[in-house]
Amino acid sequence: SLQGPEILLPGGRYACAQVLIQRQLPFLEGRSLGAVCHIVQLAVSQKRILGYLEGNMVPFGRSVDFIKEQCAVYQQPVSFAKKAVPEMPLASWEEA
Questions:
Q1: β-pairing verdict for 56-59 and 50-53
Q2: What is the pTM of this model?
């Protein structure tokens, strides 16, 4: 099982395919870059093997889409927002 930085692949199909070919995976042996690009596309769009997280491609179980699905199943809100600015206090109509 992949751990740490190995789990992250570049977010674009082409760049992802290049990295997968460089890893010399036996099941991709002999396939062209175009074929691997197509495999990556199918893995994302139809087979749900890969997904996206923070601009990278990751196993689907660690992707934003998977997290959203799990939140929907448990009827929980989804929040990926990073707080770049301090939270503002809520105001009433009288205070506004």
A1: antiparallel
A2: 0.75
